[in-house]
Amino acid sequence: MGVELIHKCPVCDSELIVQRLKCTKCNTVIENEFFFDKFMTMNKEELKFIAIFLKCRGSIKDVEKVLGISYPTVRNKLDKIAKKLEPDAITSNKKDSSDNSTDVLKILKELEDGIIDFSTALKEIK
């Protein structure tokens, strides 16, 4: 029937566009630059995960059971897919989260080195 649609260039890994569509019945041809829907850029594993997530009605616990993977693994897969769908929104949230983690690690290091005491560390983390 045809070849599975690819969305990345096999040579340089850049995004591809579709330039020609053809009707299977009347052979009408439409030429233009057609771009891929975000879901069309998902690989088979990601699409399978999305289908399972939807079948589980968004319950991460149920996805854990179905796939036999841990909660953090489910969250990581969700985050990667969400980033593909809305890269700007997820990136900015991740940056904030990463900054907070770095701050906490810095505070814990200061506590460990005796630069600050426990109550000060607790206040700064909160």
TrEMBL record:
Limits of the DUF2089 domain: 9-39, 42-86
Name this protein carries in UniProt: DUF2089 domain-containing protein
Leader sequence residues: none
Lineage per the UniProt record: Bacteria, Bacillati, Bacillota, Clostridia, Eubacteriales
Pfam families attached to this UniProt entry: DUF2089, Zn_ribbon_DUF2089
Domain of life: Bacteria
